[in-house]
Write a structure and sequence with these properties.
Structural Genomics Hypothetical 15.5 Kd Protein In mrcA-pckA Intergenic Region, Chain A; RNA binding; RNA-binding S4 domain-containing protein; alpha+beta; RNA-binding; S4_RNA-bd_sf; 7 strands
């Protein structure tokens, strides 16, 4: 059984949210049903708590489909700071044109 990695923005995510994000189910309603019926395992154990907190490294399976929680890499952030950019670009010069 191969698990695909699914990156999350924050340090944790709820089980119901994660299985939908990971496309292990199609809708939130399906997530609720699958969890309540005991079809979802977390790290190999059945868990029926939709609000269970998952963290980096947790393995979640629904039937034969599995996904692992991973943290989004910090370098994937689109944030750009002119003050710390390592180049000779002068924003003031271009703003005044």
């Amino acid at each position: 059984m191969h698990a695909h990695d699914v990156a999350i923005r924050d340090e944790s995510i709820k089980l119901g949210q994660f299985i939908k994000l990971a496309s292990l189910v199609a809708t939130g309603g399906e997530a609720k049903e699958a969890i309540a019926e005991g079809q979802v395992t977390v790290n190999g154990e059945v868990d029926t708590r939709r609000g269970r907190t998952l963290r980096h490294g947790d393995l979640v399976c629904v039937a034969d489909a599995c996904a692992r929680v991973t943290s989004a890499a910090e370098d994937e952030d689109d944030y750009f700071d002119e003050a710390t950019a390592d180049d000779d670009f002068d924003p003031e010069k271009w703003r005044n044109l």
